[in-house]
Amino acid sequence: MRPSRPSPATPLSGGASGRPRASGRPAFPPSPLSFSRPLRACALAGLAAVLAACAPAQTDGAGSGADKMEGTLRVWLFSEVDQEPKEKVVDEAVAEFESAHDGVTVDVQYIPVETRAERFQGAFNDPSSAPDVAEYGNTDLAGYVESGGFADISDELAEWEDHADISEDVAATAQVDGASYGVPWFLGARALYYRTDVFEELGIERPETLEEVVEAGRKVREEDPDMLGVSVGGAYTYAFLPFVWAHGGDVAEEGGDGAYTAAIDSEEAKAGLELYGEILSDDNCPPQTCSEMTGNDSVQNYVAGRAAMTLGGNFNLKAVQDSEVAEDTEVIPLPGTEPGSIAPAFAGGNNLGVLAGTERRTLAVEFVKLLAGKEYQRDMYDAMGNLPTFGDVQNELAESDPDAGPFIETLDAGTRFVPVTGAWAAVDAEGVLPTMVQKVAAGDASVDEAAGEAATALDDAFGGE
User: Fold this and answer.
1) pLDDT tens digits, residue range 23-46?
2) 138 contacts 124 by C-beta, under 8 angstroms
3) Are the beta carbons of 74 and 367 closer than 8 angstroms?
4) Positive or negative, the Cα torsion across 205, 210, 215, 221?
5) What pTM was computed for the model?
6) What are the tens digits of pLDDT across the range 280-326?
7) Beta bridge mates, 20
8) Nearest-angstrom CA–CA distance, 219 and 202
9) In a 10 Å sphere around its CB, with 0-12 CB exposed, 13-18 middle and 19+ buried, how is residue 463 labelled?
10) How many CB atoms lie within 10 A of CB 464?
11) Alpha carbon distance 61, 146 (integer Å)
């Protein structure tokens, strides 16, 4: 039995293809599930009600031209299931900021994630009701920028020395067309959870490639038909995409004019789809059970002891830690196509940005730099388990908390992102990628046919049809 390290007093809810782990950080052994604190992240993808699909832009993005250095600075942050630790850290940052700025009061409001589309739409249409600073999900950004809602703060960030410690692929999650509309505040990454007891009993070695992950799942299913080999779903987009990226494929390619063209029907992308489709089969994760499953569903099967493996995020650690399979679980980075490689993971997370209509731009940018800076990212990890975005802070965390190792190693190997366009809202809402995967799993279309149909749908969305 593996001893479980103490969890926080307050429970929380939950690169290039085949790139090997970058040098400069220690290599992590498989991490037994004795996690000291849960990590959190909100990818915020998969929600259809994003602003880009709600209304045309009503602001000109230029603000009032004022830059007041006193008064009330309004801040919107997302509410949490249990947000007291978050509030404590934010309150400390507010106190520090107010102490350094005479005549300035910071008013922080916590808004529900579920109603963010309506709240931001109203704020963009009526700057007088808008905050100066806001937390937002990184997949929502392109739509917000198309609506003229957030300010380009590239110049201010270029003068901020610490910003250089955020890697290019992470910094890109706060950028549109090369311009920065905020600072990445925290990240989420997914890794491979697996049952050591099941593997030992069946004589299965820890998988070193994606092919071996699939093969291990088949062997488990063959020996125990009541257990899923790999618990992933047809609606689990962020489990599917690493298979595409690891094979050298992508969802879409950006042209010189900034427009996107579908690439999901490339040979490389189809190779990833074919391999993922092998998981959604009777001899691994049967379509009748797994085709409609989301990420939460996939992890729940693992937590309930019904699966030998799953792809889960750092934000799923608490649920697994509290389950009966905790003592027999280890976590490793999802391998790529070659031994020693790591499949690129989706860079989920939240950013802090400045609203375009603010009358206190300088103060707003300074507050973003403070709250999203290194000191408070460290504090937010201690309080909430939020995975830091600064490389040097990640290094410190890697040395001090091995529980975070598989996820930091995954980030270190290089992450990828969805197409940075407001059209992604429509792609997401219409379920283009899940539909493609589900057709392959159900045998309703070949890989070529399903990928071709998805490519057409993507191009229609990118073209505004």
Assistant:
1) 344 444 555 554 433 333 333 333
2) no
3) no
4) positive
5) 0.79
6) 999 999 999 999 999 999 999 999 999 999 999 988 888 898 899 99
7) 341
8) 8
9) exposed
10) 8
11) 10
Distance CA 237, CA 136 (A): 20
Q: Which of 254-293 are b and which e, b meaning 16 or more Cβ less than 10 Å from the residue's Cβ?
A: beeeeebebbbbbebbbbbbbbbbbbbbebbbbbebbbeb
What is the three-class DSSP state of 30? coil
Give the residue from 461, 465, 463 showing the smallest Cα distance to 425. Answer: 461
Give the closest residue to 213 by CA, choosing from 115, 71, 309.
309
Asked whether 142 and 176 are in contact (CB, 8 A), the reply is yes
Token pair recorded at residue 276: 């993922």
Q: Which long-range contacts (CB under 8 A, 24 or more apart) does 324-328 make?
A: 325/195, 326/2, 326/4, 326/33, 327/1, 327/2, 327/4, 327/33, 328/2, 328/195, 328/196, 328/197, 328/198
Contact 151, 361 (CB under 8 A): yes
Nearest C-alpha neighbor of 169 from the set 189, 150, 153, 151: 189
**Interatomic CA distance for residues 160 and 105, integer angstroms:** 24
DSSP secondary structure, 385-435, as one string: -BBP-BHHHHHHHHHH-GGGHHHHHHHHH-EE----STTHHHHHHTTHHHH
Tokens of 90: 């934010």
> At 378, is the secondary structure helix, strand, or coil?
helix
Report the DSSP pairing between strands 190-195 and 307-313: antiparallel
Encoded tokens for 191:
């890794």
